[in-house]
Amino acid sequence: MTLETVANLSMVYYMFLVGLETDFTLILRAGKKAYSVVLAGFVVAMPVGYGLFYILQPKASNHGGAIFWAVALACTNFPDLARILADVKLLRSEFGRTALTSALISDLCCWVFLVVAMALLHQGKYFALGSTVAFTVFCVFALRPALKWIIRHTAKEDNYNDFHVCLVLTGVIVCGFIADACVP
Questions:
Q1: Domain spans of the chain?
Q2: Is the N end or the C end of the chain the one with fewer CB atoms within 10 Å?
Q3: What is the Cα–Cα distance from 128 to 179, expressed in whole angstroms?
Q4: Which of the residue ranges 30-39, 48-57, 75-84, 138-147 would you say has the lowest mean pLDDT?
Q5: What pLDDT digit, counting tens, does each position of 52-110 carry?
Q6: What Cα–Cα distance (Å) separates residue 99 from each residue in 82, 90, 92, 128, 174?
Q7: Burial class (CB within 10 angstroms; exposed 0-12, middle 13-18, buried 19+) of 137
Q8: Any signal peptide, and if so, which residues (predicted)?
């Protein structure tokens, strides 16, 4: 139980840091080449992952594992790819920008697919899906602007103190708890 709690906390903070480092303007400026790379990745990887699950687990009866395998195989690890491209000095090249944009779009789509699939596989699937979408919309359009306003009006000359850090980190835990409560 302790290990599971620590793992869940680690996952919540890891996803927070990935979201914090993500530049969503890349998605808005992505060209047809990046979207075609993402589409090709999904078209090839998802059926292969789905099929591999049943090849390796021929007696499996639930589709949850197969869907997870399909999404996991189609997902790229955006932060690791960015570090690799930076290490080999390809981050600023056309190839690096296309790869990074494709990885960002792919990861975003994979996380959405995974959340939707896992919500639909549970008993209260419509409640889980609806509450997850409602909470996400609330976080993007209400919580984020409110937090930005609070920090802007309490920070002096872009000097963030321990209060701001504790507020954000506590908010991450509270949002993780609410998101977990969305799935019955």
A1: 22-121, 123-184
A2: N
A3: 9
A4: 75-84
A5: 988 888 887 777 788 888 888 888 777 778 888 888 988 788 888 888 888 888 888 88
A6: 9, 10, 11, 33, 34
A7: exposed
A8: none
- Give 63: exposed, middle or buried? Use CB within 10 Å, 0-12, 13-18, 19+: middle
Q: The tokens of 20 are what?
A: 């914090």
Residues listed for the chain: 184
Torsion of Cα atoms, 145 then 128 then 17 then 80, to 10°: -140
Give the distance from CA 91 to its chain's centroid: 21
Q: Are 76 and 103 in contact (CB under 8 A)?
A: yes
Tokens of 14: 């890891």
Secondary structure (H, E, C), 68-79: HHHHHHHCCCHH
Helices (H), the chain: 2-21, 25-28, 32-56, 64-74, 78-87, 94-121, 125-138, 144-154, 162-182
How does DSSP classify residue 181?
H
Q: What does DSSP assign to residue 59?
A: T
Going by the DSSP 8-state scheme, the letter that residue 60 receives in this structure is: -
